């Protein structure tokens, strides 16, 4: 049996996320990291691949695919250059800074038949993977509400987008993916308290196509780091902590009570609590394995550019809602968002 030919991979960007990509690519089975682009060079002297200042120098090394981890504002130009040179790409989230840029990236890669994906890493979190499987199996019954909380200290590395495009896109993507439902409307409020151009806190109320209510609270203003997803349905609620990859189920109570005051209550009662034992593989490694397999032509579950575009559309609608002070309806099939009266 012949030895597996290694894919030649490149990396664009050596920021905090880029260095994690470099670590994974350096040891990924079936892949050789042949070069990295970063104007600052290798500041640590620990990387195994050459670091070049320009994308053209990286392309000259010959690539099968590249990971784009540069600032969001550069995603469109870098992605278009990769597509023009026939190079597949895994582009960090969000796909682009605007809906228009995201559309151009989708068209560039699809028109050339190139494999391309978006790095929405939460899809590969063990707690959310397990949660999605359980929802698909009907363990929660009808889903009523999805609530996410994502907060923590201000990341000084982020300068080109606000908290909606940077952090809330995680919650938008994971909510659609876990439930299998598109957003149909959002209403949002944002504030900026850190003195920067972009918003650093957002509160969102949304609705999915099946009527499920959605709430997202996201900020860069808290010393408490929190990553919580709570899904409530007619059989109880799931709580996923994506920091620890823990998944807990709180069942609705099925035991009658003799306490008259409680018996008159017609809502739900507290039942059993189960914390699931889940194998915990690193989400970034799983993401890279899935994308490598897709580039090799295997059937693989990656976040497509069209899915990444949809997330950018919902994020753009969120910013539009906050700016105009109205609910924004989100049309299906990539159509432009429309304003709806409150």
Automatic annotation (TrEMBL):
<dbReference type="GO" id="GO:0000166">
    <property type="term" value="F:nucleotide binding"/>
</dbReference>
<dbReference type="InterPro" id="IPR055170">
    <property type="entry name" value="GFO_IDH_MocA-like_dom"/>
</dbReference>
<feature type="domain" description="GFO/IDH/MocA-like oxidoreductase">
    <location>
        <begin position="129"/>
        <end position="238"/>
    </location>
</feature>
<dbReference type="Pfam" id="PF22725">
    <property type="entry name" value="GFO_IDH_MocA_C3"/>
</dbReference>
<dbReference type="InterPro" id="IPR036291">
    <property type="entry name" value="NAD(P)-bd_dom_sf"/>
</dbReference>
<feature type="domain" description="Gfo/Idh/MocA-like oxidoreductase N-terminal">
    <location>
        <begin position="8"/>
        <end position="120"/>
    </location>
</feature>
<dbReference type="Pfam" id="PF01408">
    <property type="entry name" value="GFO_IDH_MocA"/>
</dbReference>
<protein>
    <submittedName>
        <fullName>Predicted dehydrogenase</fullName>
    </submittedName>
</protein>
<dbReference type="InterPro" id="IPR000683">
    <property type="entry name" value="Gfo/Idh/MocA-like_OxRdtase_N"/>
</dbReference>
<dbReference type="InterPro" id="IPR051450">
    <property type="entry name" value="Gfo/Idh/MocA_Oxidoreductases"/>
</dbReference>
């Amino acid at each position: 049996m012949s030895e597996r030919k290694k894919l030649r991979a490149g990396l664009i960007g050596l920021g905090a996320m880029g260095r994690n990509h470099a670590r994974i690519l350096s040891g990924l089975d079936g892949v050789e990291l042949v070069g990295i682009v970063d104007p600052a060079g290798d500041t640590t002297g620990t990387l195994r691949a050459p670091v070049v200042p320009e994308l053209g120098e990286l392309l000259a090394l010959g690539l099968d695919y590249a990971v784009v981890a540069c600032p969001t504002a550069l995603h469109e130009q870098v992605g278009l250059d990769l597509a023009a040179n026939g190079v597949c790409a895994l582009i960090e989230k969000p796909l682009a800074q605007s809906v228009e840029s995201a559309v151009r990236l989708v068209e560039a890669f699809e028109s050339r038949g190139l494999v391309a994906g978006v790095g929405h890493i939460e899809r590969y979190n063990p707690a959310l993977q397990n949660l999605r499987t359980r929802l698909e199996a009907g363990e929660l019954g009808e889903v009523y509400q999805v609530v996410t909380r994502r907060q923590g200290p201000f990341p000084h590395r982020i300068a080109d987008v606000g908290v909606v495009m940077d952090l809330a896109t995680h919650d938008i993507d994971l909510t659609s993916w876990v439930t299998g439902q598109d957003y149909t409307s959002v209403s949002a409020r944002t504030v900026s308290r850190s003195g920067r151009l972009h918003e650093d806190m957002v509160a969102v109320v949304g609705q999915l196509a099946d009527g499920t209510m959605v709430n997202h609270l996201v900020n860069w203003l808290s010393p408490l780091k929190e990553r919580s997803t709570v899904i409530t349905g007619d059989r109880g609620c799931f709580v996923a902590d994506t920091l620890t990859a823990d998944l807990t189920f709180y069942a609705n109570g099925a035991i009658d009570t003799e306490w008259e005051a409680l018996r008159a209550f017609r809502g739900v009662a507290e039942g059993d609590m189960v914390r699931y034992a889940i194998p915990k593989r690193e989400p970034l490694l799983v993401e890279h394995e899935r994308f490598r397999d897709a580039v090799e032509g295997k059937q693989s579950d990656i976040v497509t550019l069209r899915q990444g575009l949809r997330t950018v559309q919902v994020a753009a609608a969120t910013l539009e809602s906050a700016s105009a002070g109205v609910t924004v309806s989100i049309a299906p099939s990539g159509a432009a968002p429309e304003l709806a009266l409150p």
